[in-house]
């Protein structure tokens, strides 16, 4: 089978369609509790903590399932795996809307977690890497540009539905969207792969464009990359949950803290546009190092607790996060090549998702016991360690 003739014509449509599906997937999973957690708690009488734990449980399930999803993409292609994610997410949303007891609610998040493993960025990146090979970088960047609007579009949409029909019918509506929008996109936009019915062997040595003069083995390289991405996931998930609390404990007014937090989204988009326009000629290892430095500077500039500096800080931090999201897909492709790419993405996703589940909980304990300045210092140390690790990765 040869995709080369169709690829230049279909790439734009493929990325656009996958981008719409990603907006739906992220809105109804990772960003869902931000809108529905309080209404669910108020309606059911469950504590807000128990409601939010549903997302943490879902992330743990996603981490457990990610390697399997990656192997299946290598074996069967992304079409069937992403389509399965739409069905799992629809079932999860349906069960969540029906939940009368916490056990049922957590069972819903179990289905959602499996759907996250098979349907969020890692699976989409693996699908693009499989279809486009070394040419996937621009498509991965384009996908993150579209997917970055998930909170911008998803939050007001879900909040509006909740206001009109309540949280249960909002879950039912999201379930229907996965079946009516997400599933057809995955079945119709992603090409069939008739000749990929056997698992792609993973080469013993890196086969990407990167040279590795240090003689580091592929397994060691994968371990280093996993450590780097996991540390950054720990930092990003912590700030995404606790940023407003951190700023308020630093003495910054709530309204100003909200405005500072709003800097992250636009700066993410701006950084991804810059990566798409001028960063494509930069090796992903250098893009990663730049992103880590930007994140570290952003966190460090919060320490003086000066409101005007907070805007600069979150602008830099948001730019770093935007570039890191792209590097998460492009760096493994550059270091190892496209053979076994889905499997490696699944292996890398597991510790990252576990960090996203555990990080905010540990950070809450640090924040309660030692305060915001100490937490920011810890995050700066974690960023520094990940920067040191990045210099052990090949960059040519």
From TrEMBL:
Domain of life: Bacteria
GO MF annotation list: transmembrane transporter activity
InterPro entries: MFS (IPR011701), MFS_dom (IPR020846), MFS_trans_sf (IPR036259), Proton-linked_MCT (IPR050327)
Record SUPFAM superfamilies: MFS general substrate transporter
Protein name according to UniProt: Predicted arabinose efflux permease, MFS family
Record keyword Phosphoprotein present: no
Keyword Cell membrane: no
Lineage: Bacteria, Pseudomonadati, Pseudomonadota, Gammaproteobacteria, Pseudomonadales
Naturally occurring in which organism (per UniProt): Halopseudomonas salegens
Domain Major facilitator superfamily (MFS) profile positions: 14-396
Pfam families membership: MFS_1
Keywords: Membrane, Transmembrane, Transmembrane helix
Transmembrane feature ranges: 47-69, 81-99, 105-128, 140-159, 165-185, 221-243, 249-269, 290-310, 316-336, 348-367, 373-393
PANTHER family named among the record's database cross-references: BLL3089 PROTEIN, MONOCARBOXYLATE TRANSPORTER
């Amino acid at each position: 089978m040869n995709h080369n003739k169709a690829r230049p014509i279909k790439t734009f449509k493929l990325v656009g369609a996958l981008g719409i599906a990603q907006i739906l997937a992220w809105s109804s999973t990772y960003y869902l509790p931000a809108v529905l957690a309080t209404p669910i708690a108020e309606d059911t009488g469950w504590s807000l903590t128990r409601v939010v734990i549903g997302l943490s449980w879902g992330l743990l399930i996603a981490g457990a399932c990610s390697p399997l999803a990656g192997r299946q993409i290598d074996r069967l292609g992304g079409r069937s795996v992403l389509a399965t994610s739409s069905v799992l997410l629809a079932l999860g949303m349906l069960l969540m809307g029906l939940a009368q007891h916490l056990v049922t609610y957590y069972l819903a998040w179990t289905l959602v977690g499996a759907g996250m493993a098979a349907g969020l960025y890692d699976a989409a990146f693996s699908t693009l890497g499989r279809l486009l090979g070394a040419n996937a970088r621009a498509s991965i960047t384009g996908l993150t540009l579209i997917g970055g609007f998930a909170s911008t579009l998803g939050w007001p949409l879900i909040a509006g539905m909740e206001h009109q029909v309540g949280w249960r019918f909002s879950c039912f509506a999201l379930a229907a969207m996965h079946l009516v929008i997400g599933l057809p996109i995955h079945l119709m936009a992603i090409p069939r792969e008739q000749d990929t019915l056997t698992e792609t062997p993973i080469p013993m040595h890196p086969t990407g464009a990167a040279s590795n003069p240090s003689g580091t083995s592929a397994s060691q390289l994968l371990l280093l990359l996993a450590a780097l991405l996991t540390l950054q996931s720990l930092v990003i998930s912590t700030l995404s949950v606790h940023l407003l609390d951190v700023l308020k404990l630093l003495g910054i007014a709530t309204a100003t803290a909200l405005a500072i937090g709003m800097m992250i989204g636009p700066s993410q988009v701006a950084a991804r546009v810059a990566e798409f326009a001028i960063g494509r000629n930069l090796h992903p290892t250098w893009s990663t190092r730049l992103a880590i430095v930007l994140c570290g500077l952003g966190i460090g500039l919060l320490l003086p607790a000066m409101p005007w500096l907070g805007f600069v800080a979150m602008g830099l931090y948001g730019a770093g996060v935007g570039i890191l999201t792209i590097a998460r897909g492009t760096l493994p492709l550059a270091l190892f090549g496209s053979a076994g790419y889905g499997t490696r993405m699944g292996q890398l996703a597991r510790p990252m998702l576990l960090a996203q589940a555990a990080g905010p909980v540990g950070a809450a304990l640090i924040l309660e016991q030692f305060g915001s300045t100490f937490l920011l210092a810890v995050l700066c140390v974690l960023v520094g360690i990940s920067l040191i690790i990045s210099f052990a990765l090949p960059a040519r």
